[in-house]
Amino acid sequence: MVPNIVMGSKTYGLLAYLYGPGRRDEHTDPHLVASFDGFAPDPGRDIDASLKQLQTVLDMRVDQLGRARRPAKHVWHCSVRTAPDDRPLTEEEWAEVARRVVAATGIAPDGDPDGCRWVAVRHATDHIHIVATTVRGDLTQARLRKDYPRAQAACRTIEKEWGLRQLNPGDGTAAKEPTNREKHKAQRLGQEDTSRQRLRDAVRQALAGARGEEEFFARLEAAGVLVNRKTGPSGDTLGYGVALVGERDSAGEPVFFGGYRLAPDLTLPRIRRRLQVPLDDCTADDQSAAPAGGGRTPGGRRSPAATARLWATDVAAEALDVLDSETPADAAAVTEATGEVLDALAATALPAQKQQLLAAARAYERASRSHVRAANSSARSVRSAARAVLSGRYAGNRGPDGSAAATLLSLLVLLVIATGRWHAEQGHRQQAAAAREAAAHLRAAYRHAAARPMAVLQERGRALPPQVRERQERAVRRAVPGEGAHRLLAAPEFDALAAALAEAEAAGHDPKALLERARSWRELDSADSETAVLTWRVRHIAKLPHPAAADGARPGPASAPAAPATPATPADPRRRR
Questions:
Q1: Lowest mean pLDDT among 139-148, 150-159, 385-394
Q2: What pTM did the predictor assign?
Q3: Which residue of 300, 380, 384, 424 has the lowest C-beta tally within 10 Å?
Q4: Which domains are assigned to the chain?
């Protein structure tokens, strides 16, 4: 059950909309289900009642104040909607919902004879609209501070009592949803996303791995976003607004959104606090900046996209340790910075994966915020990884790019699941649900990225000589105790794991030691396929080349469109503990 509250100044205009046909004739049988005294005129069911009469009844106390004293916005409008899978509520139940909401929010507290005047209008099966005027019977203004969280709390209680779908309680850190007007405008223009959502994506991608405030604004402008920087008398930037090119209001002016209208963590002070984190510094020609082997093309030239993603894999592995063992402030920092890596991946993905990665980044942005203050120092390596991904530019799904993307995504799925578990332990139910949704989108992106290189590895594994394959099976039984070994050996992906272990053995590695180290990384029990994840970890730890390279497969495109920013390639990653 979802409440939504807005304030307005025109009682008659709101009533005309609620009793009208709607914007698309979606309103059916509009009528009152409850009112402040039970006797308010109902233009929907009473042929002798009119909208003007109902407006006069609601505005009576506002009019008594006189024009000079009446509040600018005296109309309180709260819609309450049930979940799609909830049972239909009866008229009496909707009336009870309205009475409990107005009592909880301070519109008409129980037992208060001077409560505000209100009515509840129903014109659909799944929701009602509560309209109230905020002047009380003693001609004072109603105290509506924190009315939205109190309405939410009332709805959570009703859900539990009536057996409805129980939604996760909010904590005030959610981003503002697009208004109905913004949604209808996007539909009218044939756009999948509203302007608010597109600008939120642009700001997050510009912030990912940014080294400073000027670079952040430069990235926004390079992405084609209009930026309005608000400056004080001293010339310092006090705030900012962003708008889409060509997006105009009725006066022909650009429609700017301030940072807070996009998300609570996109205000300039919050952005500045995040940008205080120092990032790793090196040049783009530093060949020691990332692991060798898996990031090289057959000709020996390193793919920047693959290099960055393999480096980010090491960082993600360390982030799992932080979530598992460090303080809440450190864990919050990693959780926040992980969103920057997802934003960077979405910004540099080709169309085949972009949709799922963008959906994952959008879902995860809710999980990146909480009331736990982040320790900036713990976000350094993760933010640097986001910067590296952007510097690596666009990644394809073939050659080193596809293999490196699969390796990183397999670990990011587990990292996002771990952040969801941490949020659940902290009692952050909405953030935990957002992390689970993001993990589902990342799984889809991983399956797409891993399909081609996994098929090559499985074919290699099936072609191994019997004595080599038996040697890898013995290594699995020695490294994995009991039933775990049987599970790995019976998995469809074991052919790929056997090929990876055989290749690592030929390169001088001990297969048993590699498996033990790969299994020591956190969150393996959350993987859809433990065998597939171990395959990528073994290849990454042993720094094996791309599986299709030796077969003559062509690498991804040598050139690609420029990324939104051109930061430097990152320095050597920190060693895992």
A1: 385-394
A2: 0.74
A3: 300
A4: 2-162 (3.30.930), 189-275 (no CATH), 304-551 (no CATH)
